[in-house]
Amino acid sequence: MVHDRIVHVIDDDEAARESLEFLLRSAGIEVSTYESAMQFLQALPQVKAGCVVTDVRMPGIDGLELLRRLRSAGVRVPVIVITGHGEISMAVEAMKIGATDFLEKPFDDDILLAAVRNALSAQERSEHEDAARAVLLERLASLSVRERQVLEGLVAGSPNKVIAHDLGISPRTVEIYRANVMSKMQADSLSQLVRMALSAGIIGEQAD
């Protein structure tokens, strides 16, 4: 649930950190603060799921470099960048690197809270999607080579007779493999099977 997530506030300005912490806690959102990007990176292995709110301009590792390091490490936590006057170009660059949003100082409290809630919700959806895709990949791995070939034929839109011709087997045998595929993938219909294939990347593989 979103309310179980934590917002990691990174800012070298103590007053700014305390102000953001008070605002978020007042809204019932758990907060952890860091005085530098390096301090956050050092704590990263123990960081609880949530999102990051970081200033762009900080001594040492700035907000842009923090984003680069997070992305290069494969960390997909949503990052909201706070930028001062005249730093919009830096904020745009941050968006290109992977920031989910940026806010220009001074910003309205409600706008920050909305951005944080959106980021937390997006993170939760992403985790659910990753978990669902992992289940699909596990089901795919349970298919035999021939079942996988039949699945790819179905996803390509080929009728049973065409799949049978391409694989050198009878249409009846294709029907048996098709039933096995539907059962192992736990699909109730061909349309659902195609949606599963889309989610698992099978159609993308076919196009390569």
The proportion of residues in beta strands is 5-15%
Q: What is the CA-based Rg, rounded?
A: 24 Å
Shape annotation: elongated
Beta strands, count: 5
What value does the average pLDDT take?
A: 86
How would you portray this structure in words?
- With 208 residues, the chain is of the alpha/beta class.
- Helix content is 60%, strand content 12%.
- It has ten helices and five strands; from the N terminus they run E-H-E-H-E-H-E-H-E-H-H-H-H-H-H.
- It has helices at residues 14-26, 37-43, 63-72, 88-97, 109-141, 145-155, 160-167, 171-185, 190-200, 202-207, and strands spanning 6-10, 30-34, 50-55, 79-83, 101-104.
- Strand 3 (50-55), helix 3 (63-72) and strand 4 form a beta-alpha-beta unit.
- Helix 5 (109-141) crosses helix 9, helix 6 packs across helix 7 and helix 7 crosses helix 8.
- The radius of gyration is 24 Å and the shape is elongated.
- Residues 204-208 have low confidence and may be disordered.
What is the compact description of this entry?
By secondary structure, the protein is of the alpha/beta class.
What tags apply to this protein structure?
alpha/beta, 208 residues, five-stranded parallel sheet
Chart the SSEs and their pairings:
Elements: E1 6-10, H1 14-26, E2 30-34, H2 37-43, E3 50-55, H3 63-72, E4 79-83, H4 88-97, E5 101-104, H5 109-141, H6 145-155, H7 160-167, H8 171-185, H9 190-200, H10 202-207
Parallel strand pairs: 1-2, 1-3, 3-4, 4-5
Helix pairs in contact: 3-4, 5-9, 6-7, 6-8, 7-8
